[in-house]
Amino acid sequence: MFKIVVEKGPSAGQSFLSPRDLDEGMTFKVGREPNNDIHLPASFVSSLHGEFVFHRQKLYFRDMRSTNGTSLHRDGEPPRPLDEKNGLVVQLLDQDRLELGSSDASITLRIDLFDDAEARDGDRPAAADKEAERDSEDGVVLAVTRLEKVRELEGRFAEDPLRASRIYRASQLMVSSLNLRIVCESACAAIFELLPSATNISLLLDQRPPSSETEAEDGATSTENADFVPFLSVDREGNDVSGERPSRKIVSQVTERRAAVILGDAPSMDPSQSIIKAQIRSLIGAPLAVGERIIGVIQVDNRTSQGLFAADDLEALVVLARQMALAIENARLFQRVKVAEERLTGENTFLKNTEARRFKDIIGESQPMREVFELIDRVVDTPATILVTGETGTGKELIARAVHYRSQRRDKLFVAQNCSALPESLLESELFGHKKGAFTGADVDKKGLFEIAHAGTIFLDEIGETSPALQAKLLRVLQESEIRPLGAMYPKKIDARVIAATNRNLEEEVREGRFREDLYYRLNVFPVRLPPLRDRRDDIPLLAEHFLQKFCKEYNRPLVHFSPEATLLMKSYPWPGNIRELENEVQRLVIYGFPGDLVLPEHLAPRLRRAQNLLDKVGPPRGGLKAMLDEVERWILIDTLGNYDNNKTRAAEALEITREGLHKKLNRFGI
Fold it and tell me: What one-character-per-residue DSSP string does 569-637 give?
């Protein structure tokens, strides 16, 4: 049995109490969507952020590849991010904290674990139910005050200055704050002042979502589906006594009768360990009602002598409970409004930044990249499958992320999987999931990435590396929009947008029989080809400067810039490793360090300086960067034609351009 308490962030003060009896493999989902077991309505929490898993009598938390991540905070240890490097699953210990979100905005959850003895104390043994069922004829229910009499009691209290002043002071304590916990603590302090015989107080609140309560406001008064959960338990000294579970019997008495009751001889009425162990002699239970709805139950007990509570105590608590209910409801409404406001503010900020960011993580102003951006704008809000092709290191995953976060699916999950990173058997389980017992080591059910990405986007990198057997299963997903987890008898419908990527020529793979033709046509609905870096040389200075500023900041080095000569050398280099090679080169520069505030040609790697001889032939730099590059390109054309005896076909092949492209360049430079 465990309890999750929201310690910080939106929904602070709320808690989730697990069932007493936990079955092997039982999961409790956490996320922004209302259908999660633990609902955290904050913009920085993912729709399905993670899940608690009960496995082999231990509690674990699994991060479901959330957007802003999760970190574990444990006393005496540094924070541990739950990611691919450190592992997405962690075993939880008592008093561990989980931080959901980023450093800018997060929610902190505290984990309280109870052992079997503590859990058993929380509820009456089932065998005692019949024995405990007594009515007022047995002399156990000493007094009853129904909700209908509250108005009458308030009128009588108004005529008694002493009692009226006590109720007024108590009410003032409760309305001094809109924080739910402070309101409840103030309410308990007011009860102790009003009832001198009280020794302990337990406050239970209905944890049903607002939609259920709204339905009740429309006329439903039944508490059949109410979920009354202990929110606060204190003694007269203000100590936390939440380990002593409140009586479920008095909760049912109060809610079924819709009345406040005094129970005398409490152990005979409720012979549970929680009552007997605490030596409770009498109880008052009162409903917290707002209109026709019962939103909670207050239990007050004494442990000194039998029958100390009197009818006057009951009446006073009934009147005060009405004020308590209003104060608690106001605090909860304020909390909901605040959460909604934070969510709307976050969504508004997101929407404002979306267009401003456009393709923030994709740097490029060259004509080839502008064409890519135009393609993305055309396909972003369609359900079409996208096939991104291009050499290794051209940024295919960045393009996939740009499509997702600019689409209407942006508030759902984006999950990525490199198809060449796992063996086929593991990759199938990772993509489609498995049922408990499907294979050796499958101790619990596991969702696959397609199911996790439901209503979102799944990115399949290196799709050309998949086996024919897996290709057949992927084809079924694209055709039928359904998956079948390993070991499952029935398929599951899914709605995940598929973006695939490869550095292979899939048409050639199809001709050679290494890739299914039908799958190729399913994937190639909307092709996007990313140009290699050598075909977008105008972007090299922008990219190099971006990486330079990034690594200087990351390694706490002084900000520097590239000299025009160094920039010219980088633009002249073919970059066979594309953007990844450029990033590695700049990272190396920053790690080695260099004097001054400019990166000079001699700081660059030897392979980049090979173009220096060519620059020396061109002569000293003159004019702007474009003029210098034009001069270099003109010299390269003349030099290459000379090497091939003016054979334009062979020169075009050496330059890796078309013969038509060579003619255009020769005409441009008047050669």
Answer: HHHHS--TTHHHHHHHHHHHHHHH--SSSEE-GGGS-HHHHTTHHHHHHH-S--S-HHHHHHHHHHHHH
3-state SS record for 195-234: CCCCCEEEEEEECCCHHHHHHHHCCCCCCCCCCEEEEEEE
Report DSSP letters for 300-322, one per residue.
Answer: EEE-SSTT---HHHHHHHHHHHH
Beta carbons of 666 and 633 less than 8 angstroms apart: no
Pick the CATH number of 140-209+226-267+276-334 from 3.30.450.20, 3.40.190.10, 3.30.450.40, 3.90.1150.10: 3.30.450.40
- Residue 362 has what pLDDT? 85
Task: Please spell the DSSP secondary structure of 159-199, one letter per residue.
Answer: T-HHHHHHHHHHHHHHTT---HHHHHHHHHHHHHHH-TT--
Contact yes or no for 498/451 (Cβ under 8 A) = no
Q: 623 Cβ partners below 8 Å, 6+ apart?
A: none
- Nearest by Cα to 501 from 523, 525, 473: 523
The one-character DSSP state at 247 is P
CATH 3.40.50.300 in the chain: give the residue spans: 363-531
- 598 sits in the region (left: phi over 0; alpha: psi -120 to 50; else beta) called beta
Q: Give dist(CA 193, CA 195) in Å, integer.
A: 6
Beta strands 58-63 and 50-55, pairing class = antiparallel
**Fold topology of 620-669:** Arc Repressor Mutant, subunit A (1.10.10)
Euclidean distance between CA atoms 588 and 582, whole angstroms: 10
Predicted local distance difference test score (pLDDT) of residue 592: 87
Angle at the Cα of 341 from the Cα atoms of 335 and 345, rounded to 5 degrees: 145
The H-assigned helical ranges of 358-467 are: 367-379, 396-406, 424-432, 449-452
β-strands 2-8, 15-17 pairing? antiparallel
Q: Which residue spans of the chain are classified as CATH 3.30.450.40?
A: 140-209+226-267+276-334
Within the chain, all domains assigned CATH 1.10.10 are found at: 620-669
CATH number of the domain at 534-615, out of 3.40.710.10, 3.60.20.10, 1.10.8.60, 3.40.50.300? 1.10.8.60
Q: What is the DSSP letter of 426?
A: H
Largest Cα separation within the chain, whole Å, is 118
Of 656, 363, 638, nearest in space to 534 by CA: 656
pLDDT of residue 619: 55
Instruction: Give me the sign of the Cα torsion angle 642, 644, 646, 651.
Output: negative
Architecture of domain 363-531 in this structure: 3-Layer(aba) Sandwich (3.40)
393: left (phi over 0), alpha (psi -120 to 50) or beta: left
**According to the model, what pLDDT value does residue 124 have?**
32
pTM: 0.46
Mean pLDDT by 10 residues, the chain (671 residues): 84 75 84 85 90 89 91 91 88 93 88 64 32 36 76 78 75 79 87 84 76 42 66 87 76 85 59 42 84 88 64 82 88 82 65 50 88 93 94 92 91 91 88 88 87 94 94 94 90 94 94 95 96 92 94 90 90 88 94 84 84 57 66 76 80 83 82 77
CATH of domain 2-113: 2.60.200.20
